[in-house]
Write a structure and sequence with these properties.
Radius of gyration: 19 Å
Structural class: alpha+beta
Order of helices and strands: HHHEEHEHEE
Strand content: 5-15%
Length: about 200
């Protein structure tokens, strides 16, 4: 009887662990898919209005009835990074980009609130030049470090890129390598996925 109980407990534990792995992998994929969704919305906005969302200097004219009211960007061709897009911290064009795309009907949600990221924290769109200190102004998805651990960032980078936080389309600021000795430690800085 004890052997049967141990077998059942073993099967249950195996099922729980496998379930956790499936949930983890689905969140990794959902994060990558979020970058593709925001990429499509950014490109759609740019095609329709000939301006980058967030940087659009005519957004207030385009969306006068938006609630809450939109704010114009500076129109310089770069989506400037202003940090996290939590209420009260929406200072950058990265937050405006979400608001502009929502007002245009490309995204759901309200105002300049950051898009909820699958692992926690928020996500928004900024230009690579100001977000990751890369050349060029192509947009990237910026992922808040809240909820992001070395294990999560490494899994995204390994699944969809080269596994190196300093190169490729998945990059993490202030990080030379993922610390897999302490995989559950939260990242100290933002990561991005090229769109």
């Amino acid at each position: 009887e004890i052997a049967i109980v141990l077998v059942i407990v073993g099967l249950l534990l195996g099922g729980v662990l496998k379930g956790q792995e499936l949930i983890f992998n689905s969140k990794v994929k959902a994060t990558y898919n979020m970058s593709k969704e925001l990429s499509a919305a950014t490109n759609g906005y740019q095609d329709r209005y000939k301006a980058l969302p967030g940087d659009d200097g005519s957004a207030l004219t385009r969306f006068p009835a938006a609630t809450p009211a939109v704010t114009n960007g500076n129109g310089d061709g770069i989506i400037w990074w202003g940090g996290d897009c939590r209420p009260g911290q929406q200072t950058g064009e990265n937050c405006l980009s979400l608001h502009h795309m929502r007002a245009a009907g490309f995204l759901s949600g309200t105002g300049a609130d950051g898009a909820p990221a699958p692992f926690g924290g928020t996500a928004s769109v900024a230009s690579a030049a100001v977000f990751m200190n890369n050349a060029g102004s192509s947009p990237v998805l910026g992922l808040s470090p809240m909820g992001m651990t070395h294990k999560i960032a490494s899994a995204m980078d390994t699944s969809f890129d080269d596994g190196n936080p300093t190169t490729g389309s998945v990059r993490c600021r202030s990080l030379a390598a993922y610390n897999m000795a302490t995989p559950d430690v939260q990242l100290a800085d933002w990561c991005s996925i090229a769109m």
